[in-house]
Amino acid sequence: MGGFRVLLQATTGAFDAAAVYYAALDAEQAASIHCPVLLHLAERDEFDPPEVFDQFVAGLRAAGTPVEARTWPGTEHSFANADVALHAPTQAAEAWSITVRFLRDHLGSP
Question: Which domains can be identified in the chain, with CATH numbers?
Fold first, then answer.
């Protein structure tokens, strides 16, 4: 739910960059996001089929929004959450590393 809320807030222009896990909006909403977006997606997601994410990414790109989307093989929704059985520690660690790089690239580092 957190990633979905972040994307909704991004449609308001409130962010300089957004990094989210397993979340998407519809293509119409995607057109309202103008900050760079990083998406971490599970290979299998019980909440949304792959087409939902494909359409969201296509909507971002059509709007000219920089987007980096990564689907993590062998993962399911919540793979980055260490508190659940679906946690995939190797993929989660790599996703986190990519997230930190993305945020540094777009927001700078202290």
Answer: 2-107 (3.40.50.1820)
